[in-house]
Amino acid sequence: MGEIGLGNRGIWEETEESSEIAPVSETMINKAEEELGVKLPQAYLQLLREQNGGAIRFNAHSASEPNAWAEDHVQVDFIMGIEEGEGILASAYLIEEWDMPKDLVLVTGDGHSWVALDYRQVKENPPVIYIDNEGGQLFELAPSFEVFLEGLYTAEVAMEDYEYGEEIELSEEQVAEGLDSDDPETLIRSLNHIEANPVLYHPLIEEKLPKLLKHQNPQFREFAVVYAFHFQGKGALSNELRELILSFVENDEELNYYIESFKEQ
């Protein structure tokens, strides 16, 4: 199964970006609970008192049902914090936008699927559920957020999981929108399209790749590095972007094994 998460011990991914995320204040917590009309789980608040949301070192939680992610788990690689109109305080807007049940507090997700605190029957100590808006699934992941944390682990994810057997024609606008998407399949579709002729998309690569390197999802950052390597091999990276990627890879413990690949090209 991989590495198990035990409470909040070392859960946050340590990056240059995460080091700049301050802990949540008690004032913000009180205001959030008042706005949401619920009591947030202490295990969740304990995390935010260390860092107010961000990427975590794990990428999966065990699941009792097969789903869009896998047969036995769902993807969980970041946890939202508390921000004015953002993070969990965007739950009401997102629930309406995606036509989800009310009385949920969304803690991670990408639009198509979410992990949420389920307050439909309680006002405190809620279970944690998974919702797939496209597949119409809704099932419990854990009876509490504390137990949910215990179920986090690192699952091996192969790039091939996101490859397409059927080539799909995309307009330049669709390619650009795909690079901004938080859906892995949409992102990979655009990156695959660019890879066929990266020189043609050089301006888009220069604009979008640096943003992907800063994505809160560590898997997206790895996608950016892997495809950058292929783009470089076809002469589609500027020296400035190549140096930026090298600097990024050298400072990321999870990705620094790509250093030699870049330098050898």
UniProtKB/TrEMBL annotation:
Domain Knr4/Smi1-like: 23-151
Source organism, top-level taxon: Bacteria
Transmembrane residue ranges: none
Pfam families xrefs: SMI1_KNR4
InterPro entries associated with the record: Knr4/Smi1-like_dom, Knr4/Smi1-like_sf
Protein name: SMI1/KNR4 family protein
Species whose genome carries this gene: Planococcus glaciei
Species lineage: Bacteria, Bacillati, Bacillota, Bacilli, Bacillales
